[in-house]
Amino acid sequence: MNILLACSAGMSTSLLVNKMIDASKADGRKDKIWAVGQAELDEAMKDCDVLLLGPQMRFLATKIQPKADELGIPMEVIPATLYGRVDGKAVLDFADELAS
Question: Of all helices (H) and strands (E), which one includes residue 3?
């Protein structure tokens, strides 16, 4: 699965991305998981199966949702508790739920 995380500048989610990659590998999966900033989001969305927004991007969800719908991509804001704990396994599970 191709999981895209978006945050304001693409930097604050990097630790979470690394934790998600570790969890994916531990489960024997070969997911592609990456993060981009707001400026790169439109282009990157074309290559993802699931789009997760960092909590700091919550205010843009209504603007991004129509594009995600047009591309058939499930999109959701990462729960702040999972994001704050940098819980890679839980966020990976969250992405799986969205994709199903």
Answer: strand 2-7
What distances in angstroms separate CA 32 from CA 18, 48, 51, 92, 100, one per listed residue? 11, 9, 12, 11, 17
Overall pTM > 0.90: yes
pLDDT in tens, 15-65: 999 999 999 999 999 999 999 998 999 999 999 999 999 999 999 999 999
Report the candidate in 50, 46, 14 with the shortest Cα–Cα distance to residue 31.
Answer: 50
The whole-angstrom separation of Cα 38 and Cα 56 is 11
The tokens describing 40, both together, are: 């790169």
pLDDT at 13: 87
Residues marked active site are found at: 7
pLDDT of residue 11 exceeding 80, the answer is no
Rounded Cα gap, residues 51 and 59, in angstroms: 15
